[in-house]
Specification:
About 80% of the residues lie in helices and about 0% in strands. The chain is mainly alpha-helical. It has one domain: Up-down Bundle (Growth Hormone, Chain: A), CATH 1.20.1250. The N and C termini lie far apart (about 45 Å).
């Protein structure tokens, strides 16, 4: 409701693509420090559950106010507050997912499948609600779902925070390796067009004549396709093959965005999102596994934080600001062509990385 439909809601309130990009890009700056901040608070207090309860309580309140607002100043203020309180919930949830999967002896993908299912289901629901009851109806829907989530977390047992806190010294060590830097550069190069798509896909579908419910259907297809990938991740993921999967996903990112640039039917553009099945979940799952394979165990907390901030924070800032300017100045087709060009560059870079490192690295070799 926030990542996929905030741009659509802002567009409905009369904001232009540059203004939308400004709000989401500035939100990316907020995310850069708010995620580590609440992560450190969770580490310090040794609780995930209580921190998530606090964050979800404030998120529900500010989400209601955001989707009940229409003035530009109010939209900026409430969006920034929501970035501050809502976005840290995601990495905390992922931490909870990893903890539960390890202690219960089940695969991470089997738990993560439910996250993709929820995203897909509520993308569809949100689109229909916005289409039939108006954009401001999202205020009650957002607050209602937030309250339900609050009750569920209240009933859950807590999970102790066991990961080592991020320190500047470990970060310096982690970033001091050539392969690490090249890998993070590859992630950044591929994530910028992905985040552009996240921000402006709904806006472009609306510009082509699509309804809010069609936007919901597009995100339902995208997120729904992830379910299968995560569910069978134990079967297709192989250590040593991560760079192949990353390059494979980059190739399909290029194909997906190139086709998007030449589609004029909003329905075809929405249906094209089924290609998510061979792009984001493959790319991100392989990136996490590649990171864990090359980084010693004591640096993994640092590496995961850097990867998350790079993929969802820094790239989101550039994607929103630059993407908004390109969209406003040249239109959606040129924006998608730019996204395809960046993805093609990522494909070429991935091929170089595959040739340089491919299957050469053993787990934790960077620490030797």
């Amino acid at each position: 409701m926030f990542v996929a439909f905030l741009p659509v809601y802002l567009d409905d309130q009369g904001l232009n693509p540059a203004q939308i990009g400004f709000i989401i890009g500035t939100g990316g700056f907020v995310t850069l420090f708010t995620q580590p901040l609440w992560g450190m608070i969770s580490d310090k207090t040794k609780t995930i559950r209580k921190v998530m309860l606090l964050l979800l309580l404030f998120s529900s309140a500010f989400g209601f106010l955001l989707y009940d607002s229409s003035s530009y100043l109010q939209l900026v203020v409430f969006a920034m507050l929501l970035y501050f309180f809502l976005m840290p919930i995601d990495p905390l949830t992922e931490s909870l997912n990893f903890t539960i999967s390890e202690t219960s002896g089940v695969s991470y993908g089997s738990i993560r499948t439910f996250g993709a299912s929820g995203y897909a289901f509520f993308s569809l629901v949100t689109g229909y609600v916005m289409s039939y009851f108006g954009a401001n109806s999202l205020a009650l829907l957002f607050a209602g779902i937030g309250i339900i989530g609050f009750v569920i977390i209240w009933l859950m047992p807590d999970a102790p925070v066991t990961g080592k806190p991020v320190t500047w010294s470990s970060l310096k060590q982690f970033l001091g390796h050539k392969e690490t830097l090249l890998f993070l550069l590859l992630v950044f190069l591929c994530s910028v067009p992905t985040r552009m798509n996240d921000t402006f896909l709904g806006v472009y579908i609306r510009e082509l004549g699509g309804s809010p419910e069609l936007v919901g259907q597009a995100w339902f297809l995208a997120a729904g396709s992830e379910i299968l990938v995560f569910a069978v991740s134990f079967w297709w993921q192989r250590k040593g093959k991560e760079m192949f999967y990353i390059t494979f996903a980059a190739a399909f990112f290029f194909i997906r965005f190139l086709i998007s640039a030449f589609l004029t039917d909003p329905h075809l553009l929405a249906y094209l999102q089924i290609l998510q099945i061979v792009t984001f979940p493959v790319f991100y799952s392989a990136a996490i596994q590649y990171l864990y394979r090359i980084v010693p165990a004591e640096w993994r907390a640092t590496g995961q934080t850097v990867l998350a901030l790079l993929f969802f924070g820094v790239s989101g800032i550039l994607a929103s600001y630059v993407g908004g300017v390109i969209y406003k100045s040249f239109g959606g087709q040129v924006l998608f062509l730019a996204m395809a060009t960046l993805s093609f560059a990522g494909l070429l870079f991935g091929l170089v990385m595959f040739r340089m490192y491919g299957n050469k690295r053993r787990e934790g070799e960077l620490g030797n």
